[in-house]
Design brief:
The structure holds two protein chains of two kinds.
Chain A lengths: L7 H31 L2 H38 L2 H36 L8 E10 L7 E4 L12 E3 L4 E8 L4 E5 L6 E6 L4 E7 L5 E4 L12 E4 L11 E7 L6 E4 L8 E6 L10 E2 L5 H13 L1
Parallel strand pairs in A: 1-13
Antiparallel strand pairs in A: 1-2, 1-12, 2-5, 3-4, 3-12, 4-5, 6-7, 6-9, 7-8, 8-11, 9-10, 10-11
Chain B lengths: L1 H33 L6 E2 L2 E2 L4 H13 L5 H15 L5 H15 L12 H27 L4 H14 L4 H9 L1
Antiparallel strand pairs in B: 1-2
Helix pairs in contact in B: 1-2, 1-3, 2-4, 3-4, 4-5, 5-6
Classes of the chains: A alpha+beta, B mainly alpha.
Protein backbone atom coordinates (compact mmCIF):
# COMPACT_ATOMS: atom_id res chain seq x y z
CA UNK A 1 0.00 0.00 0.00
CA UNK A 2 1.43 3.34 -1.05
CA UNK A 3 1.37 6.02 1.59
CA UNK A 4 2.08 9.71 1.15
CA UNK A 5 5.46 10.76 2.45
CA UNK A 6 5.71 14.08 4.21
CA UNK A 7 9.23 15.49 4.25
CA UNK A 8 10.86 16.65 7.47
CA UNK A 9 10.81 20.19 6.12
CA UNK A 10 7.05 20.01 5.42
CA UNK A 11 6.36 18.71 8.94
CA UNK A 12 8.53 21.42 10.49
CA UNK A 13 6.84 24.14 8.38
CA UNK A 14 3.40 22.74 9.26
CA UNK A 15 4.18 22.86 12.98
CA UNK A 16 5.67 26.35 12.71
CA UNK A 17 2.70 27.70 10.71
CA UNK A 18 0.21 26.05 13.09
CA UNK A 19 1.86 27.53 16.18
CA UNK A 20 2.02 30.96 14.58
CA UNK A 21 -1.59 30.75 13.45
CA UNK A 22 -2.66 30.09 17.06
CA UNK A 23 -0.47 32.90 18.41
CA UNK A 24 -1.70 35.32 15.74
CA UNK A 25 -5.37 34.53 16.40
CA UNK A 26 -5.01 34.79 20.19
CA UNK A 27 -3.28 38.16 19.80
CA UNK A 28 -5.96 39.22 17.32
CA UNK A 29 -8.72 38.25 19.79
CA UNK A 30 -6.99 40.23 22.54
CA UNK A 31 -6.56 43.26 20.29
CA UNK A 32 -10.24 43.10 19.26
CA UNK A 33 -11.27 42.79 22.88
CA UNK A 34 -9.16 45.73 24.08
CA UNK A 35 -10.23 47.95 21.18
CA UNK A 36 -13.90 47.12 21.78
CA UNK A 37 -13.71 47.82 25.50
CA UNK A 38 -11.78 51.05 24.94
CA UNK A 39 -14.57 52.28 22.67
CA UNK A 40 -12.13 53.48 20.01
CA UNK A 41 -14.17 55.27 17.35
CA UNK A 42 -12.53 53.67 14.32
CA UNK A 43 -12.97 50.20 15.85
CA UNK A 44 -16.63 50.79 16.67
CA UNK A 45 -17.21 51.91 13.08
CA UNK A 46 -15.43 48.77 11.83
CA UNK A 47 -17.34 46.56 14.26
CA UNK A 48 -20.70 47.94 13.20
CA UNK A 49 -19.68 47.62 9.57
CA UNK A 50 -19.13 43.88 10.21
CA UNK A 51 -22.36 43.67 12.20
CA UNK A 52 -24.29 45.45 9.44
CA UNK A 53 -22.77 43.14 6.84
CA UNK A 54 -23.47 40.00 8.85
CA UNK A 55 -26.99 41.12 9.86
CA UNK A 56 -28.74 39.06 7.13
CA UNK A 57 -26.96 35.87 8.27
CA UNK A 58 -27.60 36.60 11.94
CA UNK A 59 -31.23 37.49 11.13
CA UNK A 60 -31.62 34.14 9.41
CA UNK A 61 -30.22 32.39 12.49
CA UNK A 62 -32.50 34.43 14.74
CA UNK A 63 -35.55 33.61 12.62
CA UNK A 64 -34.91 29.90 12.96
CA UNK A 65 -34.52 30.38 16.73
CA UNK A 66 -37.73 32.38 16.83
CA UNK A 67 -39.53 29.66 14.88
CA UNK A 68 -38.47 27.13 17.49
CA UNK A 69 -39.53 29.57 20.24
CA UNK A 70 -42.94 29.89 18.61
CA UNK A 71 -43.36 26.10 18.45
CA UNK A 72 -42.29 25.80 22.09
CA UNK A 73 -44.69 28.48 23.32
CA UNK A 74 -47.50 27.20 21.09
CA UNK A 75 -47.05 23.72 22.59
CA UNK A 76 -47.06 25.15 26.11
CA UNK A 77 -50.15 27.25 25.39
CA UNK A 78 -51.98 24.35 23.78
CA UNK A 79 -51.94 22.42 27.05
CA UNK A 80 -53.20 25.36 29.07
CA UNK A 81 -55.73 26.94 26.71
CA UNK A 82 -58.70 26.84 29.08
CA UNK A 83 -56.65 28.12 31.99
CA UNK A 84 -55.18 30.92 29.84
CA UNK A 85 -58.62 31.82 28.58
CA UNK A 86 -59.91 32.28 32.12
CA UNK A 87 -56.83 34.30 33.07
CA UNK A 88 -57.24 36.58 30.07
CA UNK A 89 -60.95 37.14 30.76
CA UNK A 90 -60.15 38.18 34.33
CA UNK A 91 -57.29 40.38 33.14
CA UNK A 92 -59.50 41.98 30.51
CA UNK A 93 -62.14 42.81 33.06
CA UNK A 94 -59.50 44.40 35.34
CA UNK A 95 -58.00 46.37 32.44
CA UNK A 96 -61.37 47.73 31.34
CA UNK A 97 -61.84 49.21 34.81
CA UNK A 98 -58.35 50.69 34.67
CA UNK A 99 -58.97 52.13 31.21
CA UNK A 100 -61.96 54.17 32.38
CA UNK A 101 -59.97 55.28 35.44
CA UNK A 102 -57.00 56.28 33.25
CA UNK A 103 -59.25 58.27 30.90
CA UNK A 104 -60.73 60.12 33.85
CA UNK A 105 -57.26 60.90 35.25
CA UNK A 106 -56.04 61.99 31.82
CA UNK A 107 -58.98 64.38 31.52
CA UNK A 108 -58.26 65.81 34.98
CA UNK A 109 -54.55 66.15 34.21
CA UNK A 110 -55.24 68.03 30.97
CA UNK A 111 -57.60 70.32 32.88
CA UNK A 112 -55.01 71.10 35.59
CA UNK A 113 -52.24 71.59 33.00
CA UNK A 114 -54.45 74.08 31.20
CA UNK A 115 -55.14 75.88 34.48
CA UNK A 116 -51.42 76.07 35.33
CA UNK A 117 -50.39 76.83 31.76
CA UNK A 118 -47.88 73.94 31.76
CA UNK A 119 -45.51 73.66 28.78
CA UNK A 120 -46.28 70.27 27.24
CA UNK A 121 -43.46 67.72 27.11
CA UNK A 122 -42.94 66.66 23.47
CA UNK A 123 -44.03 63.10 22.81
CA UNK A 124 -41.48 60.50 21.84
CA UNK A 125 -42.11 58.55 18.73
CA UNK A 126 -40.99 54.95 18.62
CA UNK A 127 -39.50 52.59 16.13
CA UNK A 128 -40.14 48.86 16.23
CA UNK A 129 -37.03 46.75 15.69
CA UNK A 130 -36.29 43.04 15.51
CA UNK A 131 -33.88 41.58 18.08
CA UNK A 132 -31.02 40.04 16.11
CA UNK A 133 -29.02 38.66 19.00
CA UNK A 134 -29.03 38.58 22.77
CA UNK A 135 -26.64 37.18 25.31
CA UNK A 136 -27.60 34.60 27.89
CA UNK A 137 -24.04 34.17 28.96
CA UNK A 138 -22.00 34.90 32.05
CA UNK A 139 -20.25 38.09 30.92
CA UNK A 140 -22.63 40.65 29.52
CA UNK A 141 -26.31 41.39 29.18
CA UNK A 142 -26.70 42.98 25.77
CA UNK A 143 -28.68 42.72 22.55
CA UNK A 144 -28.22 43.54 18.88
CA UNK A 145 -31.14 45.19 17.06
CA UNK A 146 -31.88 45.36 13.35
CA UNK A 147 -32.16 49.16 13.34
CA UNK A 148 -29.42 51.74 12.98
CA UNK A 149 -28.52 55.26 11.92
CA UNK A 150 -30.51 54.88 8.71
CA UNK A 151 -33.62 54.43 10.84
CA UNK A 152 -32.87 57.39 13.11
CA UNK A 153 -31.39 55.44 16.03
CA UNK A 154 -28.89 57.37 18.15
CA UNK A 155 -26.62 56.66 21.11
CA UNK A 156 -28.40 56.69 24.47
CA UNK A 157 -31.99 56.19 23.32
CA UNK A 158 -34.26 54.09 25.51
CA UNK A 159 -35.53 50.69 24.42
CA UNK A 160 -38.84 49.34 25.71
CA UNK A 161 -41.22 46.45 25.18
CA UNK A 162 -44.81 45.85 26.22
CA UNK A 163 -43.76 45.32 29.85
CA UNK A 164 -41.47 48.32 30.31
CA UNK A 165 -37.91 49.53 29.97
CA UNK A 166 -35.47 47.06 28.41
CA UNK A 167 -32.24 49.08 28.22
CA UNK A 168 -30.37 51.79 26.35
CA UNK A 169 -28.65 52.03 22.98
CA UNK A 170 -24.87 52.00 23.48
CA UNK A 171 -23.65 51.61 19.91
CA UNK A 172 -25.09 52.39 16.50
CA UNK A 173 -24.18 51.13 13.03
CA UNK A 174 -25.90 51.93 9.74
CA UNK A 175 -28.46 49.14 10.01
CA UNK A 176 -27.80 47.60 13.44
CA UNK A 177 -27.44 48.87 16.99
CA UNK A 178 -26.40 47.48 20.33
CA UNK A 179 -28.48 47.68 23.52
CA UNK A 180 -27.16 47.45 27.06
CA UNK A 181 -29.84 45.66 29.09
CA UNK A 182 -30.98 46.96 32.48
CA UNK A 183 -29.50 43.88 34.08
CA UNK A 184 -25.95 44.37 32.79
CA UNK A 185 -23.27 45.03 35.39
CA UNK A 186 -22.50 48.47 33.95
CA UNK A 187 -26.13 49.61 33.61
CA UNK A 188 -27.17 52.60 35.77
CA UNK A 189 -30.71 53.96 35.39
CA UNK A 190 -32.05 56.96 37.37
CA UNK A 191 -35.42 55.92 38.78
CA UNK A 192 -38.23 56.88 41.16
CA UNK A 193 -39.47 54.40 43.75
CA UNK A 194 -43.00 54.05 45.06
CA UNK A 195 -45.87 56.52 45.10
CA UNK A 196 -43.67 59.02 46.98
CA UNK A 197 -41.27 59.17 44.03
CA UNK A 198 -38.02 58.61 45.95
CA UNK A 199 -34.94 59.15 43.75
CA UNK A 200 -32.48 56.28 43.38
CA UNK A 201 -30.33 54.49 40.83
CA UNK A 202 -31.21 51.01 39.56
CA UNK A 203 -28.02 49.07 38.89
CA UNK A 204 -27.60 45.77 37.11
CA UNK A 205 -25.37 42.94 38.30
CA UNK A 206 -25.50 40.41 35.44
CA UNK A 207 -28.38 38.62 37.17
CA UNK A 208 -32.09 38.74 36.48
CA UNK A 209 -32.75 41.33 39.23
CA UNK A 210 -31.70 44.96 39.81
CA UNK A 211 -30.32 46.67 42.91
CA UNK A 212 -31.61 50.01 44.20
CA UNK A 213 -28.65 52.18 45.14
CA UNK A 214 -28.17 55.77 46.30
CA UNK A 215 -31.52 56.00 48.08
CA UNK A 216 -31.65 59.29 50.05
CA UNK A 217 -30.84 58.93 53.74
CA UNK A 218 -33.84 57.96 55.80
CA UNK A 219 -35.81 56.83 52.76
CA UNK A 220 -36.61 53.18 52.20
CA UNK A 221 -38.48 51.05 49.73
CA UNK A 222 -41.17 48.50 50.51
CA UNK A 223 -41.93 45.22 48.75
CA UNK A 224 -44.44 45.87 45.98
CA UNK A 225 -43.27 49.46 45.32
CA UNK A 226 -43.30 50.29 41.64
CA UNK A 227 -40.09 51.54 40.06
CA UNK A 228 -40.24 53.94 37.09
CA UNK A 229 -37.65 56.04 35.24
CA UNK A 230 -37.10 59.53 36.65
CA UNK A 231 -36.05 61.10 33.35
CA UNK A 232 -32.87 62.55 34.93
CA UNK A 233 -30.05 62.87 32.44
CA UNK A 234 -32.43 63.48 29.55
CA UNK A 235 -31.85 60.23 27.68
CA UNK A 236 -34.93 58.43 28.94
CA UNK A 237 -38.42 59.88 29.34
CA UNK A 238 -39.84 59.95 32.87
CA UNK A 239 -42.40 57.40 33.97
CA UNK A 240 -41.33 54.32 32.02
CA UNK A 241 -42.08 51.21 34.10
CA UNK A 242 -38.90 49.43 35.18
CA UNK A 243 -39.95 46.85 37.76
CA UNK A 244 -41.19 46.14 41.25
CA UNK A 245 -39.39 45.97 44.60
CA UNK A 246 -39.39 42.35 45.76
CA UNK A 247 -36.90 42.22 48.61
CA UNK A 248 -35.78 44.76 51.21
CA UNK A 249 -34.17 42.40 53.69
CA UNK A 250 -30.67 43.65 52.77
CA UNK A 251 -29.36 47.20 52.88
CA UNK A 252 -29.84 47.38 49.14
CA UNK A 253 -33.42 46.71 48.00
CA UNK A 254 -33.87 44.27 45.12
CA UNK A 255 -36.09 44.98 42.12
CA UNK A 256 -37.54 42.43 39.73
CA UNK A 257 -37.55 44.06 36.27
CA UNK A 258 -40.70 43.70 34.19
CA UNK A 259 -38.76 42.85 31.04
CA UNK A 260 -37.59 39.28 30.56
CA UNK A 261 -34.58 39.37 28.26
CA UNK A 262 -34.92 35.87 26.87
CA UNK A 263 -38.49 36.51 25.67
CA UNK A 264 -37.55 39.58 23.65
CA UNK A 265 -38.10 39.21 19.94
CA UNK A 266 -39.27 42.71 19.02
CA UNK A 267 -38.64 45.93 20.92
CA UNK A 268 -39.43 49.61 20.54
CA UNK A 269 -36.76 52.27 20.40
CA UNK A 270 -37.89 55.62 21.81
CA UNK A 271 -36.85 58.11 19.17
CA UNK A 272 -36.61 61.80 20.00
CA UNK A 273 -39.49 63.90 18.77
CA UNK A 274 -36.99 66.04 16.82
CA UNK A 275 -36.92 63.31 14.17
CA UNK A 276 -40.01 64.38 12.32
CA UNK A 277 -39.05 62.20 9.37
CA UNK A 278 -39.55 59.01 11.38
CA UNK A 279 -43.15 57.86 11.27
CA UNK A 280 -44.62 57.10 14.71
CA UNK A 281 -44.75 53.35 15.07
CA UNK A 282 -42.44 52.75 12.09
CA UNK A 283 -40.66 49.44 11.67
CA UNK A 284 -36.93 49.21 11.05
CA UNK A 285 -35.53 46.93 8.38
CA UNK A 286 -37.21 44.87 5.73
CA UNK A 287 -39.88 43.37 7.94
CA UNK A 288 -43.47 42.37 7.27
CA UNK A 289 -46.11 44.03 9.46
CA UNK A 290 -47.64 40.59 10.04
CA UNK A 291 -44.41 39.40 11.68
CA UNK A 292 -44.58 42.23 14.20
CA UNK A 293 -48.25 41.65 14.95
CA UNK A 294 -47.65 37.93 15.39
CA UNK A 295 -44.71 38.58 17.72
CA UNK A 296 -46.71 41.17 19.70
CA UNK A 297 -49.55 38.67 20.14
CA UNK A 298 -47.05 36.03 21.33
CA UNK A 299 -45.41 38.52 23.70
CA UNK A 300 -48.81 39.47 25.11
CA UNK A 301 -49.73 35.84 25.64
CA UNK A 302 -46.50 35.28 27.56
CA UNK B 1 3.30 8.44 -11.96
CA UNK B 2 4.38 8.95 -8.38
CA UNK B 3 4.10 12.74 -8.75
CA UNK B 4 0.57 12.34 -10.11
CA UNK B 5 -0.39 10.13 -7.18
CA UNK B 6 1.15 12.60 -4.76
CA UNK B 7 -0.81 15.43 -6.36
CA UNK B 8 -4.12 13.51 -6.25
CA UNK B 9 -3.51 12.53 -2.65
CA UNK B 10 -2.55 16.09 -1.77
CA UNK B 11 -5.78 17.43 -3.28
CA UNK B 12 -7.79 14.76 -1.51
CA UNK B 13 -6.19 15.63 1.82
CA UNK B 14 -6.71 19.35 1.27
CA UNK B 15 -10.38 18.79 0.41
CA UNK B 16 -10.87 16.58 3.47
CA UNK B 17 -9.13 19.18 5.60
CA UNK B 18 -11.42 21.96 4.36
CA UNK B 19 -14.49 19.76 4.80
CA UNK B 20 -13.55 18.86 8.39
CA UNK B 21 -13.08 22.50 9.29
CA UNK B 22 -16.26 23.54 7.54
CA UNK B 23 -18.16 20.90 9.52
CA UNK B 24 -16.51 22.05 12.73
CA UNK B 25 -17.57 25.68 12.14
CA UNK B 26 -21.06 24.59 11.11
CA UNK B 27 -21.51 22.32 14.13
CA UNK B 28 -20.06 24.97 16.45
CA UNK B 29 -22.41 27.58 14.94
CA UNK B 30 -25.42 25.29 15.40
CA UNK B 31 -24.43 24.69 19.05
CA UNK B 32 -24.10 28.45 19.63
CA UNK B 33 -27.65 28.86 18.28
CA UNK B 34 -29.03 25.86 20.18
CA UNK B 35 -27.74 27.36 23.41
CA UNK B 36 -29.98 30.36 22.90
CA UNK B 37 -33.35 28.63 22.60
CA UNK B 38 -35.91 29.18 25.37
CA UNK B 39 -36.60 25.63 26.57
CA UNK B 40 -32.99 25.42 27.71
CA UNK B 41 -32.93 28.60 29.80
CA UNK B 42 -33.13 28.71 33.56
CA UNK B 43 -33.49 32.07 35.32
CA UNK B 44 -32.16 33.87 32.26
CA UNK B 45 -29.14 31.61 31.95
CA UNK B 46 -28.65 29.41 28.91
CA UNK B 47 -28.09 25.91 30.24
CA UNK B 48 -26.64 24.73 26.94
CA UNK B 49 -24.05 27.52 26.81
CA UNK B 50 -21.32 24.90 27.10
CA UNK B 51 -22.31 22.99 23.94
CA UNK B 52 -19.61 24.65 21.77
CA UNK B 53 -17.06 23.59 24.42
CA UNK B 54 -18.08 19.95 23.96
CA UNK B 55 -17.83 20.27 20.17
CA UNK B 56 -14.39 21.91 20.25
CA UNK B 57 -13.00 19.48 22.82
CA UNK B 58 -14.34 16.46 20.99
CA UNK B 59 -13.28 17.64 17.54
CA UNK B 60 -9.77 18.62 18.60
CA UNK B 61 -9.31 15.25 20.32
CA UNK B 62 -10.66 13.27 17.40
CA UNK B 63 -9.14 15.23 14.54
CA UNK B 64 -6.16 16.74 16.38
CA UNK B 65 -4.31 19.11 14.05
CA UNK B 66 -7.02 18.78 11.38
CA UNK B 67 -9.03 21.30 13.41
CA UNK B 68 -7.53 24.65 12.44
CA UNK B 69 -7.35 27.50 14.98
CA UNK B 70 -9.10 29.78 12.50
CA UNK B 71 -12.20 27.53 12.66
CA UNK B 72 -12.25 27.87 16.45
CA UNK B 73 -11.76 31.64 16.10
CA UNK B 74 -14.75 31.86 13.72
CA UNK B 75 -17.03 29.99 16.14
CA UNK B 76 -16.02 32.42 18.90
CA UNK B 77 -16.55 35.49 16.72
CA UNK B 78 -19.96 34.17 15.62
CA UNK B 79 -20.95 33.80 19.29
CA UNK B 80 -19.64 37.30 20.07
CA UNK B 81 -21.66 38.80 17.22
CA UNK B 82 -24.81 36.88 18.10
CA UNK B 83 -24.65 37.79 21.79
CA UNK B 84 -24.05 41.50 21.23
CA UNK B 85 -21.20 41.30 23.71
CA UNK B 86 -17.59 42.45 23.53
CA UNK B 87 -15.98 41.21 20.32
CA UNK B 88 -13.11 38.81 20.95
CA UNK B 89 -14.14 37.37 24.34
CA UNK B 90 -15.50 34.02 23.12
CA UNK B 91 -12.90 33.81 20.38
CA UNK B 92 -10.17 34.16 23.01
CA UNK B 93 -11.82 31.64 25.35
CA UNK B 94 -12.33 29.01 22.66
CA UNK B 95 -8.77 29.44 21.36
CA UNK B 96 -7.50 28.98 24.92
CA UNK B 97 -9.58 25.81 25.17
CA UNK B 98 -8.05 24.63 21.89
CA UNK B 99 -4.52 25.29 23.16
CA UNK B 100 -5.33 23.56 26.45
CA UNK B 101 -6.65 20.43 24.74
CA UNK B 102 -3.75 20.29 22.28
CA UNK B 103 -1.16 20.85 24.99
CA UNK B 104 -2.59 18.12 27.21
CA UNK B 105 -2.61 15.41 24.60
CA UNK B 106 0.80 14.40 25.89
CA UNK B 107 -0.36 15.14 29.45
CA UNK B 108 -3.45 13.99 31.32
CA UNK B 109 -5.48 13.57 28.12
CA UNK B 110 -3.24 10.75 26.88
CA UNK B 111 -5.20 8.37 29.13
CA UNK B 112 -8.60 9.18 27.71
CA UNK B 113 -8.52 6.48 25.07
CA UNK B 114 -8.25 3.80 27.76
CA UNK B 115 -11.94 3.91 28.62
CA UNK B 116 -15.08 6.00 28.34
CA UNK B 117 -14.73 6.95 32.01
CA UNK B 118 -11.26 8.40 31.43
CA UNK B 119 -12.57 10.36 28.47
CA UNK B 120 -15.35 11.80 30.61
CA UNK B 121 -13.00 12.62 33.51
CA UNK B 122 -10.64 14.30 31.04
CA UNK B 123 -13.50 16.46 29.80
CA UNK B 124 -14.53 17.38 33.34
CA UNK B 125 -10.95 18.47 34.11
CA UNK B 126 -10.84 20.55 30.94
CA UNK B 127 -14.20 22.15 31.77
CA UNK B 128 -13.02 23.04 35.29
CA UNK B 129 -9.89 24.73 33.88
CA UNK B 130 -11.97 26.43 31.20
CA UNK B 131 -14.46 27.78 33.78
CA UNK B 132 -11.63 29.17 35.94
CA UNK B 133 -10.07 30.88 32.93
CA UNK B 134 -13.49 32.19 31.77
CA UNK B 135 -14.14 33.58 35.23
CA UNK B 136 -10.80 35.41 35.22
CA UNK B 137 -11.34 36.79 31.70
CA UNK B 138 -14.88 37.82 32.69
CA UNK B 139 -13.63 39.78 35.69
CA UNK B 140 -11.03 41.56 33.60
CA UNK B 141 -13.39 42.31 30.70
CA UNK B 142 -16.79 42.89 32.31
CA UNK B 143 -15.94 43.54 35.96
CA UNK B 144 -18.43 40.89 37.02
CA UNK B 145 -19.32 37.36 36.02
CA UNK B 146 -22.51 35.46 36.61
CA UNK B 147 -21.02 32.57 38.58
CA UNK B 148 -24.42 30.86 38.45
CA UNK B 149 -24.36 30.89 34.63
CA UNK B 150 -20.84 29.49 34.49
CA UNK B 151 -21.59 26.83 37.10
CA UNK B 152 -24.82 25.64 35.44
CA UNK B 153 -23.28 25.64 31.99
CA UNK B 154 -20.27 23.64 33.22
CA UNK B 155 -22.46 21.08 35.02
CA UNK B 156 -24.79 20.60 32.06
CA UNK B 157 -21.81 20.25 29.69
CA UNK B 158 -20.27 17.60 31.95
CA UNK B 159 -23.59 15.74 32.04
CA UNK B 160 -24.09 15.97 28.29
CA UNK B 161 -20.57 14.95 27.30
CA UNK B 162 -21.25 11.18 27.49
CA UNK B 163 -23.48 11.61 24.41
CA UNK B 164 -20.28 12.00 22.37
CA UNK B 165 -19.17 8.59 23.61
CA UNK B 166 -21.72 7.13 21.20
CA UNK B 167 -19.22 8.12 18.52
CA UNK B 168 -16.63 5.89 20.18
CA UNK B 169 -19.12 3.02 20.31
CA UNK B 170 -19.87 3.54 16.61
CA UNK B 171 -16.14 3.56 15.81
CA UNK B 172 -15.62 0.30 17.74
CA UNK B 173 -18.55 -1.37 15.97
CA UNK B 174 -17.34 -0.29 12.52
Amino acid sequence: MWAPVESKWQRAWGGFAHRHEITFLIVLSLVLLVLDRSGAGFFQRGKFWVMDASAPVVALATRSENASDAIWFATQNHFSLLERNEELRAQNSRLLKWRSRARELERQLTHYEDLLNVVAVPDSSYLTARVLGKSGGPFEQAMVLQAGKQDGVEYGLGVINAQGLVGRIIGVGDTTSRVLLLTDFSSRIPILVGSGGVDAIATGNNKDVLRLEYLPEGKTAAPGDLVVTSGDGGFLPAGLPVGEVIDVSDDVPIVKPYMQARQLEWVRILVHAAHNDIPVGGIAGDVAQDDVQQASAQEASQ
Amino acid sequence: MNNELLSIDGNHRAARHVLHNFLLVLLGGICVMLARMPPVHFEGVSLLGGLPVIVIYFWVLQKQTEARPVSIFLIGIFQDLLSGGTIGVWALLYLSLYVLVLSQQGGFLQFINRSALFSWLGFILVVILFVIFSWLVGWVVAGAVSAKALFFQACISALLYPVTLLWRVRSHVI
